[in-house]
Amino acid sequence: MTTVALISTPWPIFKRPSIQLGSLKAYLLRNLQGSSVDTFHFYLDVAAHIGYDTYSLISDSSWLSESLYACLLFEEQVEKIQKLWDILKRKNKNIKNIDLFKIKASLSELCEKHINSIDWERYLFVGFSICFSQLMSSLFYMKMLKKLYPDLRIIAGGSHCSLKLGQTLINTFDWIDLIIQGEGEKPLLNVVEKALKGIDIRSITNMKGLIKRGADHGDVDQIEDINNLPVPDYDDYFKLLKDLPPSKRFFPRIPLEASRGCWYRGIHGNKKGCTFCNLNLQWKGYRYKSKERLMEEIRELKFRYNSISFSFMDNLIPPHFIPGFFEELLQLGEDLRLFLEARAGISKDELKKMYLAGVDEIQVGIEALSTSLLKKMNKGVTAIKNIETMKAFEEQHTPTLRSNIILDFPSSDQKDVEETLNNLQFVRHLTPLKPISFWLGYASDVYFNYDKYGLVSVFNHPYYSYLFPKEILKNLILMIQGYKLRNNNRHLWRKVREKVVEWNKNYKTIKCSDLKPSPILSYYDAKDFLVIIEKIGIGKELIHKLTKSSRDLYVYCDRIRHVEEIKNQFSRINWDAIERFLNEMIFKKLMFKEGEFYLSLAVNHK
User: Fold this and answer.
1) Please, what CATH class does the domain formed by 521-604 belong to?
2) Structural contact between residues 488 and 103, judged by C-beta atoms closer than 8 angstroms
3) What pLDDT does 290 receive?
4) Where are the domains of the chain?
5) How far, in Å, CA of 420 to CA of 390, rounded?
6) Is the pTM of this model over 0.90?
7) Class assignment of domain 253-513?
8) If both were cysteines, with which of 115, 195, 237, 371 could 124 make a disulfide (CB 3.0 to 4.6 Å apart)?
């Protein structure tokens, strides 16, 4: 008997299956003997039809992706949505050649094909996973399904269905019969078991993890030990990929998870977490898998799908995994490709082990280069620690760094900006950060305590007024929030944005000019002396030579050192002489100082 259909609509990353669908399917199949679960990755079919490059450009913009299905969902909004498109095109030149009305027509045809090609009456109900940029597409598919199959029960879940997001959704759209809040496995299984007994899921009461129409959101229902979860089932995604024309096939990255929740808010005991973050709406607390279980999962997924590429979907990889897990992975002697997210503070030795184990790219939460601003963000790190982390990625045989710098953070001030501008002078040789404007996420600490961050009020982002009819929007609380500042600080960050854009441009120019790319600021160590090579332009270099104690001091500060450490290590040398040398290195931007801490900036050329 076919029991449940689970759907993921555009616009997730098309090169990987939905971990939400894969995890839920595996859990249901293990606990429902004799039943079956079908998962539909409609976003992959859409990507193949409109073109992968076009799909990627659209999916990179949450407003662009949401607006396309809003045109189909609310035809009376098309004129307003056209105005939004014009705004987005002015901000992003990469999308100026996309024919949005042509894409809209294709999306309508594909939705019709998806719905008409499947016998939906054979399912107990249909479940939608609604995460970032999937709201409008999910609502459109739900509306069309209900129009053709009015008795079909529809459930929604995912990060966009937590707390008041889910509560206002089900109260506003009668296409939704039930919402699962938080982690989905246990509540979804309970709903299926009720449905198999002939109970209308709309009549279910007093069940944790569910939001019903007209009721307040309740508590979540989570699995205590996630080591007990089955390995995700991505068979349907790979079958769809195999059925595509040869020219459309590719090697996907397989998603997996080592943990649920945020280590920084869980193990670390910092309940507030990063003040701007709302990534943990669907989780309560922090849970992680054992290294042994994770190794087993990688082996099984690799064998089942003949794939070497994996993406960890964790908010950040559990820090305690790093010393041992990647060494064990390396011992397998297999070539893998891994992507993950991590906190600042990873050492160069750890990065090199991770690189050898197959980690080719890491997203690190740098976010700022001002310690005063990092404190306001509650990041738990300092500017010098962030710079040390960025430096570690410049070493040879380390993963590629991906990271952002947040501009326009509420409550930031002139001091934060000046500190950022000063520190930018010391990182021009490091992989540039991507400048992004602060956006307010529902349920972040800034959202709940907006007055503390210099905000007068918070409300749904004004762009939603282009997408939703006014009478509908007034009833919704949505993921991206707008806000009114008590004192507008955005003008303060213009110079920072210009400097970061310049940094990106110059770094790329110097790197691309190298026949054999090497660090922009590196050293050659001859033990009794040290040569630092500083690339300052295409074919232009500055050479710095350090001898004897100067060389020893510079190498000693390869990692962050406190002034007392330096004094103790070099007690034979007069401190005034040491301080003169350190100040000279700082003046030349070859070292960085914060408070009583020092850091050399050049990396070993090897």
Assistant:
1) mainly alpha
2) no
3) 94
4) 2-211, 253-513, 521-604
5) 15
6) yes
7) alpha beta
8) 195
